[in-house]
Design goal:
- 32% of the residues lie in helices and 19% in strands.
- A four-stranded mixed beta sheet has the order 3-2-1-4.
- The chain has helices at 33-51, 86-96, 106-111, 116-123, and strands spanning 55-63, 66-73, 78-83, 99-101.
Length: 138
């Protein structure tokens, strides 16, 4: 006897004759603008730390839409980076593995090594450095 059974039709209304199209691999989501900034800052922090035997840092608000990341290298060299937000600065430090301090306290400040440029520019008149140029006559 011949087999006379009919193939079952899908109950969901899909056609059994049409195979489903292969799914394209999911694209990873594009990083946000803040994430890109944090990654760029992290690369700069990592480069600084690599050049100076490691580093510590401190984050501080410096004005409208700007946060300072003060970096102090293990060798006493220091530098400053500016981030657009505290979250971006913290994310950059996290990516770079930077140890953050709550305050730029005496212990961290004692690690900073200053040179002639800083003494001349920041201490200037008080310590015998060159004074400010005289104001132009009006």
């Amino acid at each position: 006897m011949a087999d006379t059974t009919q193939p079952e039709t899908p109950e969901s209304g899909e056609s059994a004759a049409q195979p489903s199209a292969p799914e394209a691999p999911a694209k990873p989501p594009k990083p946000s603008k803040d994430e890109k900034r944090a990654e760029r800052l992290a690369r700069q922090i990592t480069a600084f730390a690599g050049s100076h035997g490691g580093a510590e840092g401190q984050i501080a608000h410096i004005g409208r839409g700007a946060v300072r990341i003060a970096l102090v290298g293990a060798d006493g060299e220091w530098g400053v980076l500016v981030a657009p937000s505290r979250d971006s600065a913290r994310r950059a430090a996290e990516i770079a593995g930077l140890t953050l301090r709550e305050d730029f306290d005496g212990e961290l400040a004692a690690k900073v090594r200053t040179g002639p440029y800083e003494w001349t520019r920041m201490a200037g008149i008080q310590l015998g450095g060159p004074g400010n140029p005289p104001a132009a006559a009006s």
